[in-house]
Amino acid sequence: MKYSTYILMQIIVWGIGIAAYAVVCIAMHYNAQLSIGIFCIILIVLLLAALLVLQNVRNKKYPQWNNHWYGVRLWKTPPAIIGLIVLLCVAMFAVAFFSDLDLLWFIVAVIAGLLDVPDYYYARKYGMDEIQSWDELLQKHPGAKERLSKAALKNYLR
Quick check: pTM over 0.90? Predict the structure, then answer.
C-alpha cells in the first residue's frame, strides 16, 4: 500500500469512529436501547485498534515520514484547517452549552481526525509515495521546505 493510502485509511477510520461516537451520544441522550451504545463502544475500541495498527504498519513501511504521530508534525497545519477547527469548537461548545450532551470527547476526536487531512493532501501533492528521503523531497520540491514544520526540520537537520 502507498503512504497516502495509509493516511486516507486513517482518515476514514477516524470518520467512522466519530460517527459511532455521535450515535452513542445521541442514543444515550434519548435513553435508547443500551445495546446500541454497547455496540458503538465496541466499534470505537476496534477502530482505535485498527488506527494504531495502521499507524505502526505505515511507520515501518515508510520510516522516512514516520515522525508526526510521536510528537513532531511533518507539515505545518494550513490556516484553513485551523479556522475549521476553531469554528467547529465554537459550534460544539455552543451545542454543549444549550444541551446536556457531553461533546468534549467528540470535539477531541474530530480535531484529531482533521489533523491527518494536511498529511494526506501534501503526501499526494508532493508524491511522497515514491520519494524515499527528505533530501529527495526537498530536491524535487524546493517549495515544500516552507510548508514543513520547524520542529520536523529541526529533527531532520540533527
Answer: no
